[in-house]
């Protein structure tokens, strides 16, 4: 299980414990006696709670907010448009490729030196240079899917913080309300029980407020970064289409050229007719009647 998930689960388990500690105000107070001025860890500081009690209640949500802040700032830096799609590199590279002033090896080397996400997509396309457009587009899709996965990295953590923080607050509220009413059922004085119930409800509802305070900015940041990723992906797709048109082979070239025509064979000679038992000159002379000159 990832470390962040473990921290969020631990925060959820701790969300109810500070509420119980904050509600433990010492021995019961009689209705006619004034309430003590100090809380669990000193003088009342906010909402009848001391600073130490507030720190106990807010600790799980402070951890969750630090997680969201850390990964939110990290994604804001990584997803800068100039870092993902450097305009100088893109304009120069596409100009060289479309004009044919660069070889396949040189184009691949330039992409590797740049190292930006759009350069990685171009590198996958250049590997299929001279192939049919379907093969080049498939290479762009494969390379683009990997880069989108890298761009969306850690966004799930922001979504998890935005989802878990209200649940932690709700858990703390429910646990706090249960123990507040449990103390009321065990108390003797009606007035003292009412004051104790009010203090317990305030402490319990504070966890829900803290959970929403952490969840709302985290959710806004998550949707903002997700929209930026979608915008960057659309721009990369448009640039990849230009590259495919420049390096892919035309669709008509997919079929192999027809073989050259074979030379016509000469007609075979006609067979000569052979007359069987053809009469020779001597035979013909023998058959003539006597006294006939030949």
Sum this structure up briefly.
The chain is mainly α and about 290 residues long.
Q: Could you walk me through the main structural features you see in this protein, from its secondary elements to its overall organization?
A:
- This protein has one domain.
- It has eleven helices and no strands.
- With 294 residues, the chain is mainly alpha-helical.
- Belongs to the exbB/tolQ family.
- It is found in: Cell membrane; Membrane.
- Keywords: Cell membrane, Membrane, Protein transport, Signal, Transmembrane, Transmembrane helix, Transport.
User: Taking all residues together, what is the mean pLDDT?
Assistant: 76
Q: Which ranges are low-confidence, i.e. pLDDT below 50, for 5 or more consecutive residues?
A: 3-10, 12-42
Give the helix tally: 11
- Given the C-alpha coordinates, what overall shape results? elongated
Query: What's the number of extended β-strand segments?
Result: 0
The rounded distance between the terminal residues' Cα atoms is: 126 Å
Helix amount: 55-70%
Order of helices and strands: HHHHHHHHHHH
As for the number of domains, it is 1
Signal peptide: 1-22
Family: Belongs to the exbB/tolQ family.
Biased composition (Pro residues): 257-269
Keywords: Cell membrane, Membrane, Protein transport, Signal, Transmembrane, Transmembrane helix, Transport
List strands and helices in order, with pairings.
Layout: H1 3-14, H2 17-23, H3 51-78, H4 81-84, H5 87-99, H6 104-114, H7 117-126, H8 133-151, H9 155-186, H10 190-247, H11 281-287
Helix pairs in contact: 1-3, 1-9, 2-3, 2-9, 3-9, 3-10, 5-10, 6-7, 7-8, 7-10, 8-10, 9-10
């Amino acid at each position: 299980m990832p470390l962040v998930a473990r921290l969020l689960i631990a925060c959820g388990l701790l969300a109810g414990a500070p509420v119980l500690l904050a509600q433990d105000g010492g021995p019961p107070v009689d209705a006619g006696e004034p309430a003590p001025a100090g809380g669990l860890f000193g003088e009342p500081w906010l909402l009848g709670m001391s600073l130490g009690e507030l720190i106990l209640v807010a600790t799980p949500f402070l951890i969750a907010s630090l997680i969201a802040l850390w990964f939110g700032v990290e994604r804001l830096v990584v997803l800068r448009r100039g870092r993902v799609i450097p305009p100088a590199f893109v304009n120069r590279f596409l100009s060289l490729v479309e004009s044919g002033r660069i070889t396949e090896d040189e184009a691949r080397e330039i992409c590797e030196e740049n190292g930006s996400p759009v350069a990685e997509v171009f590198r996958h396309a250049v590997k299929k240079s001279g192939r049919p457009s379907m093969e080049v587009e498939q290479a762009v899709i494969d390379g683009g899917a990997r880069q989108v996965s890298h761009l969306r990295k850690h966004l799930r953590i922001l979504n998890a913080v935005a989802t878990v923080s209200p649940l932690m607050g709700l858990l703390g509220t429910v646990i706090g309300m249960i123990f507040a009413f449990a103390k009321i059922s065990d108390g003797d004085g009606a007035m003292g029980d009412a004051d104790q119930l009010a203090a317990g409800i305030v402490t319990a509802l504070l966890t829900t407020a803290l959970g929403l305070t952490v969840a709302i900015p985290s959710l806004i940041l998550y949707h903002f970064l997700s929209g930026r990723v979608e915008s960057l992906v659309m721009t990369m797709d448009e640039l990849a289409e230009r590259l495919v048109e420049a390096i892919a082979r035309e669709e008509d070239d997919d079929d192999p050229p027809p073989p050259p025509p074979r030379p016509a064979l000469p007609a075979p000679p006609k067979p000569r007719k052979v007359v069987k038992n053809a009469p020779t000159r001597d035979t013909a002379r023998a058959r003539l009647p006597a006294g006939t000159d030949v």
